[in-house]
Specification:
The chain is of the alpha+beta class and about 325 residues long. The protein is built from nine helices and 14 strands. The chain has a seven-stranded mixed β-sheet with strand order 3-4-5-9-8-7-6, sandwiched between helices. A five-stranded antiparallel β-sheet has the order 13-12-11-10-14, with no helix packed on it. A two-stranded antiparallel sheet has the order 1-2. A hairpin with a 3-residue loop joins β1 and β2. The chain binds biotin.
Length: about 325
């Protein structure tokens, strides 16, 4: 059953900027108006403020701008896929918390969100700067029971979905730098870190981590990141509603995961990838361990491997590595 605070919030958000009568809220919740008032007090304690007008009721006049689990839940589209939500003020890494929850037997799917990570990490063990600064740190957790070979395109498919979601939500055109970087205008907007555990030739646990720069002012990022990073607020010119965006991302990732598992994503994947692929036709270098390859990127093959045409003109396939775009 939904907590009364969530029911009240949904009613108020649905009617925004209008009022909802105390009687209607009391009827909806099956409690007295005093009971409603008490639950609204709990919302006030979280940073919500309401205007109360005699004979009209209540309306929402202020909401917390930081990550708020009730607001995320209230913004999830009715009828969208369901997942349990774990929203933490601070954690070492949402991916690590996901692992712990999996090990403790938590049913999937579930989502771990945090305001701040103390040991946020990126690919190749790099640090992912994760202060409580209005950015998004999230892990989406599944037990897919798919054969490992199927997973090669997973992060790419998720990246394409996230780009489309950001394009629709923010009215900008982001891009993906194969295999896991989200970019806008030559600067990094976010990154994905997919981690899987294989058991008897099946993917047992799958953790899809996403770090997205949303509202942190770029100048507040560590100095080394400032020249190469951007945020959605900078790209759009205004701060974003973090909780509404988080809800939209959750809905999209869960839907994309289902399509991936059903294998019904293939018909749209190529078009989506081509729309957001930042590398195709451009000079790139790829680093794979101690190996370094330079050439012109030629998109991806059916397995999600990157094609690079070197000096001899023949395309080579790479299923892993880190790419650098030589010009934006
Ligand atoms: C990269 O670009 O190298 C990937 C960055 C992934 C960062 C996210 S933030 C949420 C999740 N938890 C982590 O510790 N990392 C991922």
């Amino acid at each position: 059953m939904n907590p009364p605070e969530l029911v009240i919030l949904r009613e108020l958000l649905d009617r925004e900027p209008g009022f909802v009568s105390g009687t209607a809220l009391a009827r909806k919740l099956g409690m007295s108006r005093v009971g409603v008032w008490m639950h609204m007090g709990k919302l006030r304690a979280q940073g919500f403020a309401f205007e109360a007008v005699r004979s009209r009721g209540y309306r929402l006049v202020r909401r917390p701008t930081g990550l708020n689990p009730l607001l995320v839940l209230a913004h999830l589209k009715p009828g969208s896929r369901q997942a349990d939500l774990l929203c933490l003020p601070e954690v070492d890494s949402t991916n690590d918390e996901a692992e712990r929850q999996l090990a403790a037997g938590r049913p999937t799917p579930f989502v771990v969100l945090a305001r701040r990570q103390t040991v946020g990490r990126g690919r190749f063990g790099r640090v992912w700067h994760s202060e409580d600064n209005g950015n998004l740190y999230a892990s989406f957790v599944f037990r897919p029971q798919l054969e490992p070979g199927r997973m090669q395109t997973f992060t790419l498919w998720m990246g394409a979905n996230l780009c489309e979601l950001v394009a629709n939500f923010c009215h900008i055109e982001p891009g993906i730098k194969w295999p896991n970087d989200l970019y806008f205008s030559g600067r990094k907007l976010g990154g994905m870190l997919t981690e899987a555990r294989v058991d008897a030739d099946q993917i047992r646990d799958l953790v899809f981590g996403l770090g997205l720069n949303v509202n942190c002012p770029r100048a507040a990022l560590p100095a080394a990141l400032v020249p190469q990073a951007t945020t959605l607020a900078e790209c759009t010119g205004h701060p974003l509603d973090l909780n509404r965006l988080a809800a939209a991302i959750i809905g999209r990732v869960l839907a994309a995961y289902e399509q991936f598992v059903e294998d019904s994503h293939r018909s749209t994947f190529a078009d989506m990838w081509n729309r957001f692929d930042l590398l195709r036709g451009k000079p790139v270098t790829l680093v794979q361990g101690s190996r370094r390859v330079a050439g012109i990127a030629g998109g991806i093959d059916d397995e999600g491997s990157l094609l690079i045409r070197g000096e001899n003109g023949r395309p080579q396939r790479f299923h892993a590595g880190e790419t650098t775009l030589l010009e934006h």
